[in-house]
Amino acid sequence: MQTVIIGSGNVAYHLAKAFVLNNIPLTQIFGRNEGDLKKISEELNIPYSTEILEDAELYILCVSDHSVENVSKIIIKKDCLVAHTSGSLPKEILVGDYRKSSFYPLQTFSKSKDLDYEKIPFFIEAENEDDKKLLFTIASKISKNVMESTYEKRKYIHLIAVFACNFVNHLFSRAKEISDSQEIPFDYFLPLIDETVHKIYEIEPRSAQTGPAVRNDERVLQLHEQLLQGESLEIYKTMNHSIQEMYEL
Amino acid sequence: MQTVIIGSGNVAYHLAKAFVLNNIPLTQIFGRNEGDLKKISEELNIPYSTEILEDAELYILCVSDHSVENVSKIIIKKDCLVAHTSGSLPKEILVGDYRKSSFYPLQTFSKSKDLDYEKIPFFIEAENEDDKKLLFTIASKISKNVMESTYEKRKYIHLIAVFACNFVNHLFSRAKEISDSQEIPFDYFLPLIDETVHKIYEIEPRSAQTGPAVRNDERVLQLHEQLLQGESLEIYKTMNHSIQEMYEL
Question: Where in this chain does the record put each Pyrroline-5-carboxylate reductase catalytic N-terminal domain (chains A, B) (predicted)?
């Protein structure tokens, strides 16, 4: 089975690494950024090219959403399977006479951060049963959590991930901005953050809510608003309003 | 050393438990809610009362912010130390002729959830060195992380905790609301949530930001907005606006 990964960013790197760690052969890693490709190629011992796309049965596009359509056009082979890895694109975005599919790993990827690949949920969509089976087989070598998903469902999965990951990280950024401004080490908050996450393994988040908004503690809410400004103040008001709406306060 | 905990809620329960686990003697747990007190008393083997407050050298008030002032008046003894456990109140809120202090554990407490007490940061403020030393000694038996903090600093610590804990949990609640509505198991998102938190142990949250807003991906932002309504839509817009402001997009 010949497989090529196209791209040299965070997703390409981690997917290539997951393949190598699970002894899934990779024919090539292909892309535009030679510096990045070379680094991945050397670390994982996979051939790379910026010019000649190897012949393969499966191409996996790990490029940014807005590049998927254009990059998909470089695959001129007909009898092959092409998968993109985006949470927010239909498989029909791919342009070519090949069979189209989606191979979506639900995780946040940073190159410098190691990952436990077997816990990453993979969502798969394909045109026919054979392709589906093939992608399931590959994903199941990497992860214990492989599922089928339509584009409709994938859109929602991606949206939920934005709330549970991207926005959560931004709250950490804003929290750190405040702690930096007051010379309070952000490390103080790590046990609290850990516990906030541990809790939802045992308790519904709705039942785990604490803080001034759910207590309807107007004094503290006003005190806090006086300490804030700009975007952090907007976040503070919007989140509290949403908490109070959820609990009908 | 005679110590009394006043209150029967989550903070009272966990603080009493932390005392017992670390062999710090507790004279009594005192409060209004006999049912709750009785449960704590039986589990931790500490005497309780709803009527007669025992004589002690230290009283720790674990009651809600708006009750601190009134409850503090029941301590009529003069030669003793009284501490409240609130992040957002000055020690001067306490009304009595005793010495006043603050003993603030930075954590989110739910009765049904076990905690690793030694990781909880404790912030201490007192009127004099002896009282400070006493509270430091007690807190240091429970936790490895004990610090002094003025009211000014404590206010900010509490505010940052709201962003890093209360708001993060509310994002989980809204995310779960969406996943429930689409019949997508929320468990799918737990590895992603774990990774979002693990990342900030290694990378600055500002550098770890991913998602459509920081990529300035207008197509996905608009797609997502069409899937949302009400408070979740407001959160979506506010958070993205704040992300784009932070990265000057």
Answer: 4-75
Residues of A numbered 140-179 whose beta carbons fall under 8 angstroms of chain B's beta carbons: which are they?
A: 145, 147, 153, 155-176, 178-179
Contact B120 A196 (CB under 8 A): no
Which of B16, B191, B163, B144 is CA-nearest to residue A173? B163
- Partner B contacted by A112 (CB < 8 A): yes
pLDDT at B109: 84
B194 in Cβ contact with A205 (< 8 Å): no
DSSP alpha helices (H): ranges in B117-214?
129-142, 151-161, 168-181, 190-202, 205-208
Q: Is B114 on the interface with A (CB under 8 A)?
A: no
Q: CB-based contact (8 Å) between B217 and chain A?
A: yes
Q: Do A195 and B236 touch (CB under 8 A)?
A: no
Q: Give the Cβ contact number of residue B150 at 10 Å.
A: 12
CB-nearest partner of B176 from A115, A197, A205: A205
Task: Answer whether A218 touches B (CB < 8 Å).
Answer: no
Domain boundaries in chain B? 3-149, 155-246
Q: Which of residues 1-60 of A touch B (CB under 8 A)?
A: none
Same fold across A3-149 and A155-246? no
Per-residue confidence band for B58, with pLDDT thresholds at 50, 70 and 90 = very high
Chain A contact for B226 (CB, 8 A cutoff):
no
Phi/psi of residue A82, each to 5°?
-120, 130
Burial profile B236-249: b = 16 or more Cβ within 10 angstroms, e = fewer? bebbbebbeebeee
User: Are the Cβ atoms of A234 and B241 closer than 8 angstroms?
Assistant: yes
Quick check: B219 and A66 CB within 8 A?
yes
B193 in contact with A, Cβ within 8 Å: yes
HSE value, Cβ hemisphere, 13 Å, CA-based, for A94: 29
Cα(first)–Cα(last) distance of chain B, in Å?
A: 59
**In the CATH scheme, what is the code of domain B155-246?**
1.10.1040.20
Helix or strand or coil: residue A5? strand
Q: What is the pLDDT of residues A65-75, one digit of tens each?
A: 999 999 999 99
pLDDT at A245: 98
Q: Compute the average pLDDT of residues B214-242.
A: 96
What is the maximal distance between C-alpha atoms in chain B?
67
Distance from the B56 Cα atom to the nearest Cα atom in chain A, whole angstroms? 31
Cα gap B96→B73, rounded to integer Å: 6
Interface ipTM:
0.91
Looking at 3.40.50.1820, 3.30.70.890, 3.40.50.720, 3.20.20.140, the CATH number of the domain B3-149 comes to: 3.40.50.720
